[in-house]
Specification:
Helices cover 37% and strands 15% of the residues. α3 packs across α7 and α12 packs across α13. The chain is built from 14 helices and 13 strands. It has 400 residues and is α/β, with parallel strands linked by helices. The radius of gyration is 21 Å and the shape is globular. It binds ligand F0G.
Length: 400
């Protein structure tokens, strides 16, 4: 098979994968790894999870650093699809990956690459999940990990995961965008510390297996809805879908809907105003801390994906996010973190505005486990009572 190579989708620059680079030296956009289209045709897969797709993953190691990521369930909605007003809704539950988010798909490939390159340590900037995932995979690989996080803005569960795995946690007085800028600069100064944000093309490769799993299991839906923060995952999803078409496993590409939180929605704003460039948001705000990002590194690729697919960018309020986080649990039994509920909240909005049709079949990706970030749920009204340890008291509260 012809070797894959780096390509800049923005300006066309190409480079061999032997080089350890992340960004296009000509225009600065994150690089993508591309395969020869003819070589993809007819490829088949075996095994389970992310490594089922090893023939379309750009690492040669026979011993990947793995925690059996991928192979997450695709649940058919039993109730919300009716309320939302569509024919079928399927929920891809990425919160059931080993560290509780989709990040593991990219990290298994990224940390394997780090070992192949002989890196001594790995680093990321993170709103929490990347940090949790990176520190776990680094621990497994015997690599030192550094996670750079915005002070006070990351969910407790995620911080606990990174602490448990022994990462060095660097809290920055500033938001995620500053943290990412710093680690990007550091990556240009050293090759010993390997950068594993989603600007790393190898991480995108792992994450594209999300698309492979959806299509192999379900076929082609009319739409796929996905939350958007730094815009790596939507980039990976679209890349995977296009490869599936080249392989011959997919005839019609689905439309993509990328959903941002209202207070952190620069890509949505540019899309809605038909602007060519985003205007970064200096002080992003949302309850969905995972996607509290004002200057998404992969915004160009996200915008291209949405437009090429004939889809849309959407934004949802914190109130809508929390409403659908609760509904996913109370109507479907699926507990997700707030950022994940953005995809379903976005779908409800899209249905209301007739962006999706009542005959459409939709897959919504939920990206992270609710156990990571339960704080907002502790503030809502629920049916909770405290009683004495007395059977009569218990009988009184059972009212059916
Ligand atoms: N959902 C969750 C739960 C996330 O943690 C993230 C990103 C996203 C969605 C958005 O994905 O950035 O690829 O568009 N979290 C990153 C982190 C930024 O550091 O954990 P994206």
């Amino acid at each position: 098979m012809k070797l894959p190579k780096y390509k800049c989708e923005n300006c066309g620059y190409e480079e061999s994968l032997d080089k350890n680079i992340y960004f296009c030296p000509r225009c600065g956009d994150p690089l993508t790894i591309v395969y020869d289209e003819d070589e993809l045709h007819g490829i088949s897969f075996k095994g389970k999870g992310v490594w089922r797709y090893k023939d379309v993953l750009p690492v040669s190691s026979e011993k990947p650093v793995t925690l059996n990521e991928g192979g997450t369930p695709l649940h058919q909605s039993v109730s919300l699809y009716k309320e939302i007003g569509i024919k079928e809704l399927w929920i891809k539950n990425e919160g059931l990956n080993p560290t509780g988010s989709f990040k593991d798909r990219g990290m298994t490939v990224g940390v394997t690459r780090a070992l192949e390159l002989g890196a001594r340590s790995v680093i990321c900037a993170s709103t929490g999940n990347t940090a949790a995932s990176l520190s776990a995979y680094a621990a497994r690989a015997g690599l030192r990990s550094y996670v750079v996080v915005p002070e006070g803005s990351i969910a407790l569960g995620k911080l606990a995961q990174a602490r448990a795995a022994g990462a060095k946690i660097v809290k920055v007085r500033g938001n995620f965008d500053y943290a990412l800028k710093m680690v990007r600069t550091l990556a240009t100064m050293t090759t010993e510390t390997y950068l594993l944000n989603s600007v790393n093309p190898f991480r995108i490769e792992g994450q594209k297996t999300l698309a492979y799993e959806i299509i192999e299991e379900y076929g082609s839906p009319d739409w796929i809805f996905i939350p958007v923060g730094n815009a790596g995952n939507i980039t990976a999803l679209w890349k995977g879908l296009k490869e599936l078409k080249s392989i011959g496993l997919l005839e019609k590409l689905p439309k993509l809907a990328g959903v941002q939180a209202e207070g952190a929605s620069p890509i949505y704003r540019a899309f809605a105003e038909q602007k060519e460039e985003i205007i970064p948001i200096q002080n992003p705000q949302t309850v969905a801390t995972a996607i509290k990002i004002g200057n998404p590194a992969s915004w160009r690729r996200a915008m291209r994906a949405v437009k090429e697919s004939g889809g849309v960018m959407l934004s949802v309020s914190d109130q809508e996010i929390l409403e659908y986080q609760k509904k996913l649990s109370s109507k479907e039994g699926i507990f997700v973190e707030p950022a994940s509920a953005a995809s379903i909240a976005g779908l409800a909005k899209a249905s209301l505005h007739n962006i999706v049709d009542k005959n459409d079949r939709v897959v919504a990706v939920v990206t992270g486990n609710g156990l990571k970030d339960p704080e907002s749920l502790m503030k809502i009204d629920t049916e909770e009572v405290t009683i004495d340890a007395d059977i009569n008291e218990l009988k009184k509260v059972i009212n059916n």
